[in-house]
From TrEMBL, chains A, B, C, D:
Residues 31-50 bind DNA. One of its GO terms (molecular function) is DNA binding. Keywords: DNA-binding. This is TetR/AcrR family transcriptional regulator. It holds the Pfam family TetR_N. Signal peptide: none annotated.
DNA sequence: AATGAATGAGGATTCATTCAT
DNA sequence: CATGAATGAATCCTCATTCAT
């Protein structure tokens, strides 16, 4: 995660502690006093830097979102699509890439998910924006493979919805609900198989 | 929802207000004063009835959980399995039944999901219990249809996991994230098709 | 001062303490903790009742203003003017009446003056309103005595301004700057003489 | 205003900002952070220069007081008294001179008045001192014109008090309450007439 | 000489909870 | 039984001030 550079040791401890505590107990159940204590700084230092508790949250969440979603953007997509790969290969690359990213930023991911689910306000601000990004990017990919005749005959945006539902459920259940460190290759393969072929014999 | 019967008007107003507010803003961001005001009772009345704010939450969540998960238990399962239905039929019945139940109890469902995601503590108490219930019940069903040869050749509990992931994502994304009133039949059919056959041609 | 009736003992102690401390140190230099301590109540009790520190201030100031200015309204004015009195008599009655009122409410008067002088915001809200009340009431009186030929030949509103300047300075210097308990009759007579005849032989 | 010479640009910006903000919102409602921001210096610079916020206030107030009151001292008084002028002429010169001075230093005057009214502590330190200065200087003047037979037969210090009350009210109401930039000659003449002859025909 | 970083002490305000009536 | 009154403990946040660089 590319957080603003040139933080002092104390400032780094603040964001570390904040992420850890927000991930563990949720933003609303974490007091600035707790963060200060965990970071071994004064509360005042937190407010000097971030102004409000809310801005502290945003300053953690936003860089994560920027990498979580648009990262799979042009670079990734184009390279993948230019190669002679199947959608299954693309999906495999995508899942492995995102699993790796989330594994490395598991706590921030937890914070992001928890707060999007919990804070109506934040959700309403972010969801349309995220939905737009995801849709616009992925719909190209779907369209690309669809024209190649790789998918069964259902509308592209139905495919998108189902994928989104499953992949979202996949990441959230593993990284947030079960609090797993990572997801192993075997499970990724299970997921890919499920997505590609379903469960019917 | 079978909440304890014989509630006075005031008691009903309290739980209605609590559910509405918890669903909207989350338990942590709702004060007992707000609930009291919305329910047009004194704060003291709430505490007389429920002892603590936490017990109030539990008294809303627990009846919902009891119906949400175990409801699909013996009655449903046995009847379904006894008939000569395919897994697809079972899944259709199950989804429709649960969509109906959640539609009618959307706000409580939102509270349940939000708090399970948010409160590590609550999650740790409930997840093993829920997981046990779901697993024990559904694994019988899976095993039943598996023996009938309806599934591709993957372990039963992999099937269970994938189903759980997808169905959970399905309900949460629609009823919590998107705050939909219900899910129409067409989308249910899309989901069934996705689960059964995946997306590959 | 007619403050809202039916205050509990604690509630009365709150307003007493607030008035005393605001008068002594000014609103901005008095913390709610100090008020609570002086009143021997919890800070929470103050906020339960008044919501904010600002509303507490207003709830002290407004009843005082209502009596301070419009009190000299219809009752006083009409009776005075109906009698065959001179302006000097009217002024004497007015000054004595107001001195008595302020003596009895010296601390609130101090709070009112201090905050009007100090808080731009409060001043801008109150001054136009007060000015309107004073002007509309007193200009009638001035006009009345002016037609009787009691005044030298200067515009009525010049007389009003000079009176306001002097009487304001009189009350503020004595009751606020010098913190006097009251103003004795001799000084009132000096003031009347000054207003009526100036200082030139 | 003769503030200490040789101020660097930064130091000037500090006192300008401080005066402006103190005049506008009052000392207690102005933070050193605000001053630093307005002056475009670091807070630390303010404290390096002035030690404490209180000393900053005093360093603004004291030079003003020195010119506001004693300025009318020896030079002014003697010259005026030596000429064959009436008290009315003296008063006219005095008022015009003070109006000019305050007009040019309106904001500092506002700070001085506001803080004297507001801070019991400051008031108690300054009032006896100021009163002594004013009394000792002006009582000579009053005595001078009194012996010339210009005044009606009331004690000199009663005249002094009334003058002080009116002139104080005059300046404060115009420059502080109404926040006027200056006072025009017509109003000064009205004031002089009022002081000299009162309002009785 | 100037400042960015840091903070202890205190600021107003909110909260879940208790209890006498 | 219901509630108005009351509160201790916490919450987020601000402030004047210090100090190493």
């Amino acid at each position: 995660m590319h957080l603003p550079e040139k933080l002092t040791a104390k400032q780094e401890r603040i964001i570390e502690s904040a992420i850890r505590l927000f991930a563990e107990k949720g933003y609303s159940n974490t007091s600035t006093a707790e963060i200060a204590k965990a970071a071994e700084v004064s509360e005042a230092s937190i407010f000097k830097q971030y102004g409000t508790k809310d801005k502290l949250l945003l300053s953690l969440i936003i860089p994560c979102l920027k990498e979580l979603f648009p990262a799979m953007a042009d670079e990734v997509l184009h390279t993948v699509m230019s190669k002679a790969v199947t959608f299954e290969d693309f999906l495999r690359g995508f899942l492995k890439n995102r699993v790796e990213f989330i594994s490395e930023n598991r706590e921030i991911f937890q914070v992001v998910i928890k707060e999007i689910v919990y804070k109506e306000e934040l959700k309403n601000e972010l969801l349309p924006y995220l939905s737009e990004i995801v849709t616009s990017r992925l719909s190209k990919v779907i369209a690309f493979f669809r024209e190649r005749g790789e998918f069964i005959d259902i509308p592209a945006d139905t495919i998108l919805k189902m994928l989104f539902t499953f992949v979202g459920g996949f990441f959230v259940s593993r990284f947030v609900l079960l609090n797993l460190r990572s997801i192993d290759d075997r499970e990724i393969e299970d997921a890919i198989r499920f997505v590609m072929d379903g469960i019917r014999k």
